Amino acid sequence: MNLICTVQFDEAEVEAGGLLTGRVCLLEDTSALREARKMRLSAICRVEGPGKPEVRVLNTAELPGPFKPQVDLPFRIPIPEKGPITYQGIILQIRWHLDVQLVVPEGFSPRKETSFDVVPASAARSRRGPPRAHPKAPPA
Asked: Basic residues compositional bias: what residue ranges (predicted)?
């Protein structure tokens, strides 16, 4: 069973080293919602290309329960400064997802995944030099 919720990001893109912010709204009053002790939000990076896909959970935030339907729950998750930026190539793809999971003790923990983009930090914000490309990314 999937988690029935909406995820709204404050910005469509987040800079590397920035904060992913937004709101989660649980839409239905279910037994999982009533029994959940917390909500886990994970920033996941997936690298797909030749060979085995790589999946990394790069940061996690937890919101304590209890939860009610139709209530906006704000969240903030830091995105690593050296994390790879979103990339859609022919051979290699780097995609970011926010995984929202209700943690239900001794029960099924429903979840939902929503995509977002990570872009290079702007020069005004990052004086440490140009952003580093992912090691598997093709040369620019």
From this structure: 125-140
pLDDT digits (tens, 9 = 90+) for 73-93: 999 999 998 879 999 999 999
Provide the 10 A C-beta neighbour count for residue 100: 23
- Give 139's strand partners: none
Residue 120 is classified by DSSP as: P
Residue whose C-alpha is closest to residue 116's, from 81, 70, 85, 74: 85
Is the Cβ–Cβ distance between 47 and 92 less than 8 Å?
Answer: yes
Q: Going by DSSP bridges, is the β-strand pair 111-119/72-78 parallel, antiparallel, or unpaired?
A: unpaired
pTM of the model: 0.80
Evaluate the CA torsion angle 97, 74, 82, 117 in order and state its sign.
Answer: positive
